[in-house]
Amino acid sequence: MIRTEGLSKKFRKVKDEKKKTGNKKTSYEFYAVDHVTMRADDGEILGVLGPNGAGKTTLLRMIGNLMKPTEGEVIISDQEGGEITDQIRIKTMVGYLSGNTKLYHRFSTREMLSMLAEIHGISKEEQQDRIQEISDILDMESFMDNRIERLSTGQTQRANIARCLIHKPQIYIFDEPTLGLDIISSESIIQFMKKEREQGKTVIYSTHYMEEAQYLCDRIVMLYQGRIIAEGTPEHLMRQTDTTNLRETFRALIAGMGDETDE
User: Fold this and answer.
1) Which residue has the higher pLDDT, 147 or 20?
2) Angle, to 10 degrees, between the axis of helix 153-165 and the axis of helix 124-137?
3) Where residue 261 falls among pLDDT bands split at 50, 70, 90?
4) 3-state secondary structure (DSSP) of residue 150
């Protein structure tokens, strides 16, 4: 299980103000993530939903140990409930996917996975079997030996996910894993997440696709202006707001809370 306690990230923003005496720059601090407490259990897919600027990516980066929080903490527990504090062990437990992750374009997917397997200390004897297993899971055999720079968007995304699988993490953190993909590539990734859940893994992922989240997620956390405004199963949230889909649910929740947002 992974959980957060009062997790926050504060940034400073510079604002230009036009005065009669000339332009003046002022700065102010704001919370991109504002004291978020949440959890994701073993064998669960947790969706993090919200409009642009809600704090989803910042939240996932802190959970994935890629960004230091201003306040609060991330706690990872083993299956017996004991807290894990060893940072090396935590890194081996987490697989993080971001749309900004850059791959080695001149490598083939197989070469990239071989290199990463060595970095993670996987023996030569195990590497071939592990890479073949990943290729089968993500249906990658047809392009495993093509250079990454020549892959389609969907193939590149699958190669990116394969990078997260090589060390068999217990927790997956995916930031918009299906954004911009065609139906076939999206379905391949969705089926992968479902299979990992069946293996007792934890999946936390953000998406703009409300229908996808409604179909896939066990629970939903809805963020708005850095704060959790609702949490629960898709069915619970829809009942709570008397709506029939998560898109309507989100609109109902933010009604009266501020400016209209872009989903």
Assistant:
1) 147
2) 140
3) very low
4) helix
Residues 189/161, Cβ–Cβ less than 8 Å: yes
Which residues, listed in sequence order, are joined to residue 73 by a DSSP beta bridge?
5
The model's pLDDT over 73-132, given as tens digits with 9 standing for 90+, comes to 999 988 777 888 888 888 889 999 886 677 888 999 999 999 999 988 898 889 999 999
Helix axes 109-119, 124-137, angle to 10 degrees: 130
Q: What is the DSSP letter of 51?
A: -
- Arithmetic mean of pLDDT, 247-259: 80
- More confident of the two residues 18 and 114: 114
CB atoms within 10 A of CB 106: 10
Section 224-248 average pLDDT: 95
Pairing of strands 94-97, 202-206: unpaired
How many Å apart are CA 141 and CA 139, to the nearest integer?
Answer: 6
The rounded distance, in Å, linking the Cα atoms of 167 and 113 is: 10
Q: For the chain, give the number of residues.
A: 263
